[in-house]
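Data card: per-record layout.
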Amino acid sequence: MSTPARFIHLRVHTEYSLLTGAVRLAALPDLCRKARMPAVAVTDTNNMFAALEFSVTAQGAGLQPIMGCQIDLRYREPEPGEMPAAPAPVVLLAQNEAGYANLMKLNSCLYLRGDGQPAHVTIDELVRHAEGVICLTGGPDGPLGRLLQAGQRAAAEALAAALQHAYGDRLYVELQRHPGESGAAQAERMTERGHVEIAYGMGLPLVATNDVHFPDAGMYEAHDALLCVAEGAYVDQSAPRRRLTAQHYFKTADEMAALFADLPEAVENTVEIARRCAFGARTRDPILPRFAEDEVDELRRQAQAGLEARLAVVPHAAPVGDYAARLDFELGIIERMGFPGYFLIVADFIKWAKEQDIPVGPGRGSGAGSLVAWALTITDLDPLRYKLLFERFLNPDRVSMPDFDIDFCMDRREEVIRYVQGRYGREKVAQIITFGALLSKAAVRDIGRVLQMPYGQVDKLSKLIPVEGVKPVSIERALKEEERLREAARAEEVVDRLLTYGRQVEGLLRNASTHAAGVVIGDRPLDELVPLFQDPRSEMPATQFNMKWVEKAGLVKFDFLGLKTLTVIRNAIQLIHRSGRALHEAADGHTIYEPFEGAEDDIGQIPLDDEKDLCALHLCPHGGGVPGGKLGHDGRAQAHEAHLHRGHRGAGGALPPRPDGKHPEILRGQERAVPARAAASADRPYPRRDPGHHRLSGTGDADRPGDGRLHSRRRRPAAPGNGQEDQGGDGRRAAQVHRRRAQERRR
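The structure for this 747-residue chain is written out next.
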């Protein structure tokens, strides 16, 4: 029979407390298992980034999740002309589903204030969203603790009364003890007596917490360096900075019981709170706004009409019956999987963009294999012509959300997003958050900076870490593979310290930003489904859950990608219209101007099987038996010809001037093909290049007068070839040097 729990951690900061918490979410179930704790609360600072991920992961590991957050409260409004007091933290825990919904609302309030102030909530907002929430007063650094430290006992009691009125028996007075080398911390020593007296005087229960920031005491120094990275401070600086103690680790129940032996009820109340918070967040099926009363019928109607319109102008790649059968097959799959609304929403904003003359990409990825998408003008590629498979996009045997990668003109992408916000409601549209991790190279650089090591030394150490693919390997692996890194650690204690700290903090999250293209659209205000976050660099809010977990929360991602190529093509077409003249290639190969009589505004009308285009891309079936069409002296298509062909034809026949003012017809004169060289003779396998390299006299020729004339470059005699006699002695080394130089010139 298992031993009853004696203590539950109710204040844990994971890696999602960016550059503050160092408890890895994936390792939390093991920490609880070793400490024999059946439940644990995650209370990251001013966010719920990990709420759903923690709930699902913990339940999968047989652990009871307690979802919460540490949230900054503006507990006192400033007097006129007075600077507002810094917000103080309180801890809020979700008791039930209503409490979880209120926590999401409060976390959205933190960032969607619109007043430019640091993230915080007010007393009114706290009271408004108090249902189903358990409140801990925040310990010595909470609002009660701040008032007690300032000697304002009456104000502390008044605030406790206001919180008690809002939360009733769900308010707990929080106590903390983090003894350091010199005893209890000053704030704890100054406030504990006042906290206990207020609790006993008002009949409020006490609760003991440990403010957990790292998994074990051995990580204290590395975590201290992490705090310096967050604040731009130095580890050994004498100026005041934020510091924790070595006691802010994940303590066992026995350690906490011994620490609060004089107040056993404060430890026991942690278990009581865990029993009251028997709620876990769940994943949801996809939620989309309703596009029409009968989405199935609407999708069929639009798809049939769209296919007829396409086939009326596009050459058929198969009999019309094949198109109809393929369309009916795809519609059946889409209806069976429940995604008609998704196709209608995507088609709606793409049609709007095209009506506003906003360039839209022709489609890419697996979505190009859908005939329904082609009929709805989501894509511009006929899947039957190119034999593309619909099953790569949607497959009943592999249930997943459809995902169109949609390219818009980079300059006008925001217009499409604003249309979507107006169509479905600003409160129902948001971007998706993404997190940056402290990878090994960045960890070495950041930790080296806070240890005040020389930049050159830190830079050298960072460059010794190998890169695999696009990411650097871990510091642990780098130490195994790179002898110079191990030698540096043995030679200097500070380097060993740097790498030790780096190993402990690498992989932790360091910052939050928004996804480059992902946008979610809901059928209700999004803060009812996920907490929201505001990136200062963006006008639109973002979800606090990342791309993986926002979909599990029921929201569907739409990709609005900004593609610069579409912007360049649009600008080229506008240049044609403004100039009224277009560039064309004459029969003799020269580029000339001709009067403009109209250009193709729709890049989709540019043929994909044009022979000149294919030759420029080395795909032409003609050209003397060598792929590439027009050949140069080395048997390859000329790179500058490919540039000119592709540029002129792809941009409707015109290219804008280069930054240096030169036009393409000038470039053509400068980049004419070089005549082919004669074949190398058998006795001279490494011929020199044509002696057409010249230089002005006086540039390195001390024995020549600087008369301004062009002279041939002076050359050393060629090294003897294989099997030839070396007149100057053993010329093997000279021959190797000459060969290498010749190879470099040919490249």
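Known properties of this structure: Residues 5 and 366 are 52 Å apart (CA to CA). Residues 591-599, 623-674, 684-715, 719-729 have pLDDT under 50 and may be disordered.

See the next section for split statistics.
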